[in-house]
Amino acid sequence: MLLKQRLWAVVIFQLVLVALSAASAWLLRFEFSFPRPAEFLLALPLLLLMRFTFLAHFKLLHGYWRYAGVNDALDVVKATCAGSVAFVVAERWAIGERSFPISVYCIEMILTTMALIGVRMVSGVMVRGAQGHMGGRESKTVVVIGSGCAAAMLLRELPRSGYTALALVDDDPAKAGVKLHGVPVRGSIGDLEDVVKRERPDEIMIAIPSATGEQMRRIAEHCGRTKLPFRTIPGLGNLIHGTVTVDQLREVNLDDLLGRDPVHLNLDSVRCKIAGRVVMVTGAAGSIGSELCHQLLRYAPAKLVCVDQAETPLFYLEQANSETAGAKVYCVADITDSVRMRDIVREHGVNVIFHAAAYKHVPLMEDNLQEAVKNNVFGLLSLMEVAEQSGCGDFLLISSDKAVNPTSFMGCTKRIGELIIAARPCAQMRCLSVRFGNVLGSQGSVVPLFQQQIKSSRRVTVTHRDITRYFMTIPEAVSLVLQAFSIGGKGDILVLDMGKPIRILDMAKTLIRLSGLRQDDVEIVFTGLRPGEKLFEDLFYQFEQRLSTPAQKVLRTGGAFMTWPELRARLSALRGECLSGISVRIRACVKEIVPQYQWIPPQNNQGLPAALLAGQQIYNGERNRILSMPLGFDRDLASATGALPQSENQRPSL
User: Fold this and answer.
1) In the chain, how many H helices and how many E strands?
2) Domains plus CATH for the chain?
3) pLDDT digits 0-9 by tens, 576-601
4) How do residues 104-128 score in pLDDT, each as one tens digit?
5) What are the φ and ψ backbone dihedral angles of 69, each rounded to 5 degrees?
6) How many whole angstroms separate alpha carbon 510 and alpha carbon 490?
7) Looking at the whole model, is its pTM more than 0.70?
8) Could you point out which of 161, 393, 458, 554 has its C-alpha 20 to 30 Å from the C-alpha of 304?
9) Cα torsion for 576, 579, 580, 582, to the nearest 10°?
10) Which helix (H) or strand (E) element contains residue 166?
């Protein structure tokens, strides 16, 4: 009821302005005398009707004048011009009243336009002034970085949230001294510290949504030196909608400083490969696996089967996706258990498999070689056989940049996985692998580790001063994986464009600044490279060609790979050495498969196998342990050696 009363009050007020403008026009026409009042009063209702009609048509009857801008002023001009034309036509031709002075039409239109625009401007100024006055001493002051479109929108919104902008800084020298909404540009971003010392603001706001990662790192560095809190506009999406509010500003995070260009997906090609099909994700509760599940559901699969051996993380994944549309199944299972995996694949009719399950922690796998091989190599082989025998159409392996010139055993297992994908013949199934580097915020990665160290002990451990890594965000990595999946061919090894590598020491310093601390507040300790770790990661081998693909930021490797019979024989030998439990034998066997493995065998060759390729190194005392290995690879062993292991005949037929 109150709203309706307010609306009618605004309508009546505007019509009164129109009547006063008409009366003023009549007075001006007759030199401030008022002859023929009857003629004026007879024409006034028609004029008010026309004004009301066109103000309503252009939606100008509301009273939200504090938000009025240039567009509202243009609408007022259009409404008054259209109303004047309609009034003239109705007065002179419809009614036939031709004695009404023509000059009054023009003067009235000008006065009405000025009155309607003026009242909106005055209202906005009064409201902003009242807000500033009400804020009093509680109003916060800010310095804004940037003086473009986003800054203009932000400045317009600041008074409504109790903020006062004191100054702008911008690197464009042409803008020095210029005022934006009455706020002057006081210098460049490099002058920020001096500007802050002069103006003494409470906060810094960054209004450059198009800033690159390098620019944001520079801005964050200057902001950090001021020791003031600073926030940023999330992105260009706000400008698209024409809104930038104080509530939308957030703290600068590592994603901003990474500053990678947004991924442009070919949604149709991805949807074509996913929609209406049953998709399974192994390692679904992990960082990459959970984001894969989240993004896959957007493409309307017939069913999403989420597999992980970790029960609690899988439960949390189920809770996170509970509100998301689509059929979902959650299975606790070990991918090396071929019987269990075959049951899952066949029960749900899986068509597509994204294989993200793998051991990934480099130092830990250096002390657990057999488990690394069992899970990352033979688990892959077993799952591929299950998938092929069950009629799956597509199989994608998540690989790692640690597979290139590996110094770690984990990296070797990833490289062997790539070789298996490229070499193993699959008549009906398209197999491919995708290689990329570290992702920000993944479980066990350096970023959450640094954040925890900063919070708990004010002491950050960095392995080496010069160590660098490639980074991308988890959503970006998964989006590119899906894009690669949509375009890859059989046996392809696809590599994601990771941009430029980032120095870990610089990342640690940035996280310290983002935590609101000075670098002196947190001790940085260099611990030395861990077992299997290297200073710099590569995305390609030297012998690999970098071939473009239809997808931006997705490349294809080109190079000669080991044939499947040769690789299968070497894997048979590796299987035997894993049963021996002797680490030097296992590493030597892996180096035969991955010659680029940067491991130096012992100087004395004692204990090394005489023939690494024979595939016969199954020791009598360890033969029963073969039951713990995947069924699928037992069959590959049979093909390579000409006989099935004794325990194979004891397995139930499926």
Assistant:
1) 23, 22
2) 2-133 (no CATH), 139-252 (3.40.50.720), 267-437+473-498+539-558 (3.40.50.720), 564-650 (no CATH)
3) 999 988 999 999 999 999 999 988 77
4) 889 999 999 999 988 888 876 676 5
5) -145, -155
6) 42
7) no
8) 554
9) 100
10) strand 163-169
